Amino acid sequence: MSRIAVSGARWVVKIGSSLLSNDGQGLDLPAIQLWVQQLLALHAAGVELILVTSGAVAAGMERLGWRSRPKVLAELQAAASVGQAALIQVYQGFLQQGGVAGAQVLLTHEDLEDRQRYLSARATLRTLLEMNTLPIINENDAVASAELRFGDNDTLAAMVSNLLEADLLVILTDQAGLYDADPRLHPQAKLLSEVDAGDPQLLVMAGGSGSRVGTGGMRSKVLAAARAARSGTATIVCAGREPQVLERLRQGEALGTYFRPSLPKLAARKRWLLGQLRPHGVLQLDEGAVRVLREQGKSLLPVGVRACEGNFGRGDLVSCQAPGGEEVARGLVNFASQEVLVRLGKNSQQLREEFGESDEIELIHRDNLVLL
Question: Which of 18, 100, 259, 320 could lock 211 by a disulfide, CB 3.0 to 4.6 Å apart?
């Protein structure tokens, strides 16, 4: 029995820079054509497809005549701007041969951080799928700042999986999957066929970036699988250069590493909260508050908060940390940082006496709080 569903399923397929480029020197057109042919076969089989693609910077480097990847942000943005046009032209050309229209969607972290823009992106992508097109997604590298980037397209693919509640995330990479040790350093390392997404031991096994043209290594793929699992999405990480890799996955062959979505599935709003990559501040909790959040699922009250760090406003995302520094939750705070400071450690009676009966008691309401 196949470990994945095919007909009627929704797949997010992510192809990394190392696969799309000729060692960083331009696009590998024959390889891209083969992947598009497989995507067309999946499309014809009834799979709803979303493609998350890297490669814009590599394509831009070729067009600009650059031999090495730039390190200055403005130069990276320029290369991405030049290369994105070439990249989408290549995909559109191959897709049209199969009678399918591609739809370019460029996203930034701010698009998914803002609730209204998040909902707008979801509505657009759902409409594109209903129209039987194939959305082609990349980070909008031409405008994304260094501080507000997804960091790598593995993270972007996982967030798109959450956004659309995909059944499967396929991450095609230059390695066969996740090994129990770095195979570049340990020749006897064993490929793991099936694991639980979110298992902390997997991060110990994952190494760093395996390519000089990409930004995401195996660690980012392990983290992406855990993030995708929050919407019930399974993840497969496998070698993109395996012959007919997508076709073989469609037929049920066990390739690469399969990450079971064993983490609890979160509601859509809490997935959006979890998707925020950069909190605006930190609340330091005592042990009692940590227990209440973890065991009872209640709102966060000021009495259990020991310290407040950062300068944030009402409605901003903040991180909640245990006494040892472990992040236990994230949520949208009801007060600006200066207002939080005057409420620290106070119980409900003290708050009412000082601020009145009409004042909110919770620092973070449980509906706006997600546990990690």
Answer: 18
Q: Tell me if the pTM is above 0.90.
A: no
Kindly state whether residues 291 and 257 are assigned to the same domain. Answer: no
Helix (H, G, I), strand (E, B) or coil at 261: coil
Number of domains in the chain: 2
- Measure the CA–CA gap between 340 and 299, rounded to whole angstroms: 15
Q: What is the pLDDT of residues 55-79, one digit of tens each?
A: 888 888 888 988 888 888 888 889 8
Range of the domain at 208: 10-271
The C-alpha atoms of residue 50 and residue 52 are separated, in whole angstroms, by 7
- List the one residue out of 2, 14, 16, 88 whose CA is nearest residue 45: 2
Residue with tokens 């990409």: 214
Asked if 240 contacts 35 with a C-beta cutoff of 8 angstroms, the reply is yes
Cα radius of gyration rounded to whole Å, the chain: 22
- Say if residue 98 is in the same domain as residue 228: yes
- Phi, psi (degrees; rounded to nearest 5) at 329: -165, 165
- Residue ranges with strand state E in 174-218: 194-196
Of 139, 157, 168, residue with least CA distance to 275: 157
Q: Which of 217, 240, 271 is the last residue of a domain?
A: 271
Residue 308: band (very low, low, confident or very high) from pLDDT cuts 50, 70, 90: very high
**Single residue among 246, 271, 296 that ends a domain in this structure:** 271
Residues 259 and 296 grouped into a single domain: no
Report yes or no: 365 and 334 within 8 Å, Cβ to Cβ.
yes
